[in-house]
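Re: the request from the purification team.
They wanted to know what the chain is likely to look like in 3D before they choose a buffer screen. I agreed to run a prediction and write the result into the notebook, where they can find it.
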Amino acid sequence: MARDYKEEYRKFQSSPAQIKARSNRNKARRLMIKEHGKAAVKGKDIDHKDGNPMHNSRRNLAITSVKYNRGKH
């Protein structure tokens, strides 16, 4: 059975809560690029240490490997 990406977007990714969370994750990435530079963030993930994408304080953010960040949640 093939995935229906349009249906997934319509049901989940387009909800206001998910749009806000995605916006905050993007904001965290921009903050880390501003602080550390684009080269330091390239190929890495920005980890929200407490797991809350709405909490973008500097002490809650860390540059981590993709493997570590996506494996811990």
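For the purification team: The chain is about 55% helix and 15% strand.
Please add any questions underneath this entry.
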